[in-house]
Amino acid sequence: MLSPDGSRIFFVQEDRKDPYDWGMMVPVIGGIPQRLRMPFSEGEVGRLKWVPDGKSFLYSKYDNGVANIWSAPICGNKPPRRITNFQSDRISAFDVSPDNRLVISRSERLRDVVFIKNVK
Fold this sequence. Notes:
- This protein has strands at about 10, 25, 35, 50, 55-65, 65-75, 80, 90-95, 100-105.
- The chain has about 120 residues and is mainly β.
- The protein has no helices and nine strands.
- It is about 0% helix and about 40% strand.
- The chain is globular.
- The strands form three sheets. It has a four-stranded antiparallel beta sheet with strand order 4-5-6-7, with no helix packed on it. A three-stranded antiparallel beta sheet has the order 1-2-3, with no helix packed on it.
């Protein structure tokens, strides 16, 4: 994932033993990747986005089938904080605009599908 200012790339590290040690950052111009101990485990993340200032990530997290958006600083000096307080449904997609407005697409989980042919 390219940072908002285009200077860094965030990517997921393979082969890790610690569930919080999964983030890596490398400058676009090259260099040695920097390990990031994330303030949340990779298993908690539904989707992940940079915030426009490049200092934090927004991510969707599911608890008991309900998704909310959380914010976590990249430097890890503060704990994540919940941004939304939804009580039901999932988050299909979300994004944040350059002026920090959050757009969220929410939906219910579809469990049963019926296909009917030759309806007259």
